[in-house]
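Consider a typical record:
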Amino acid sequence: MAIREDIVASAAQFLQDPSVASSPVENRVSFLRNKNLTQEEIDAALGRASGRVTDSHEPRAAAPVQAPPHQYYNQYVQPNPWQQPPQPQSPRRDWRDWFIMATVMGGFGYGLYSRYVYPMIAPPTPERLDQDKKDISDKFDKTFALVEQLARDTEALKAAEKDRTERLDTALAELESVINELKSTNRRREDDAQRARDEIQALKESIPAALDAQKSLADSRLKEVNSELISLKTLISRMNAPSIPAPQSRQVAGNSNNNDNEQQKEAPSQENTELSETVSTTKGNGHASPLSGGTTTGKVSIPAWQLAMANKGSADPGAAS
């Protein structure tokens, strides 16, 4: 395979670098092999580099000055990151360069001074003072107007808050009064309910005693009615039993008809009188009449059926005679 002269020349120039020449041969060979150089090209580059290195010990004046083709080499071979090519020598500056630089820096500094520094340290002009006074006055006017507006708003808020507080106090007072009324009403209702419960309990307890008393009273009244009925039966039997007169002559009977009629008229009245006395006597002894409806007060009268029976009994003896 033919040797590529351009690549071999670039590799030889790269190997001539002092930092590269001081590295081991194995590192240089591996680097060139990584750059796709063949073994023949590597040997040729090493040979050329070693030959030029020996020549570099000669005086610098005798050595030809050649510009290293860095640009051409950089197109094919890249050094390691830690390897840097030698810096080119900076050009020398004379007094003209320094004068130009001083002039430029002075103009630049003067522009900065006149633009930023001088307005800060320069005394204000009368127009600027008047403008500042006007601005300050306007700001004070705005501030005072804002303070007055704030004071008015504060007064309005205070009035509204006072009104709301008064209405709230009134509502709370009304609510408290309503609650007190409800409490008193509830207390009265509870008292009434308790009184009603007590009365109902008393009625429950008194009903059996009243029933017993009523039962005993009814029994006693029944006994009294029975006794009165017996006495009435006795009276009725006495009224129904006529007395048999002795036989007399017709003349005596004829003359005594008027007397008998008078006696028969008086007999019912006497029997009625006796019955009234009997009833009044029983009433005075504390016994109620069976027809008096259970009352023990008032005037006692003889029922009409008793009077009718008494009249009938008195009429029967007269008819028999």
Remarks:
- Confidence is low (pLDDT under 50) at residues 52-82, 244-276, 278-300.
- The two ends are 201 Å apart (CA to CA).
